[in-house]
Amino acid sequence: MKVYFEDSELEAYVKTGKSTAKAYKQYAKDKAFTERLQAVVATMQAVTKSSELALYSYLKYEKLKHQYSGLSSVRIMNGKVERLIFKETENGFEITIIELDKTHYGNKK
C-alpha cells in the first residue's frame, strides 16, 4: 500500500535515517531504532490491505480507541514504548505521528 506522511520532517527522517527536527533528533541517534522504523514502513508498503498487518505479530497492530479513535498503530521496536500511529485511507496509510509518550503501556522509565 502507499504510505503518505502528514509531517514532512518525519518523512525525511524515515527516508534518510537522519533528522534535524527537534521531535525526531533523539530517535535519529539510535541507529537500531531508525532501522526498525524503516523496516516497519517497508512492511506497511508491502501489504495490500491493512488487515494483513495483523499477520506480523511483532508489529502488534491495533485499531486505537478513546482519544485516538479512528487511528491505528504498530509497534516499532521490541522493548520500546513508541508506536507508529497512522490513519487508514482507501489509498493507503497516512502516517501522522510517532507516539512519544514515555508512560505508554505503563512504562515508568
Mean pLDDT: 85
Main-sheet strand order equals 1-5-4-3-2
Helical content stands at: 25-40%
By DSSP (H or I, 4+ residues per run), the number of helices equals 3
Main β-sheet, in a few words?
5 strands, mixed
- Name of the CATH first level: Alpha Beta
Number of strands: 5
CATH superfamily: RelE-like
* CATH-defined topology: YaeB-like fold
Q: Structural class of the secondary elements?
A: alpha+beta
Describe the protein's architecture and organization:
There is one protein chain. The protein is of the alpha+beta class. The protein has 3 helices and 5 strands; from the N terminus they run βαααββββ. The chain has a 5-stranded mixed sheet. Strand 3 and strand 4 form a beta hairpin. The protein starts with a strand and ends in an 11-residue tail after the last strand.
Secondary structure topology:
Elements: E1 2-5, H1 8-16, H2 22-28, H3 31-46, E2 62-63, E3 72-75, E4 83-89, E5 92-98
Parallel strand pairs: 1-5
Antiparallel strand pairs: 2-3, 3-4, 4-5
Concise synopsis of the structure shown:
Helices cover 29% and strands 22% of the residues. By secondary structure, the protein is α+β, with helices and mostly antiparallel strands.
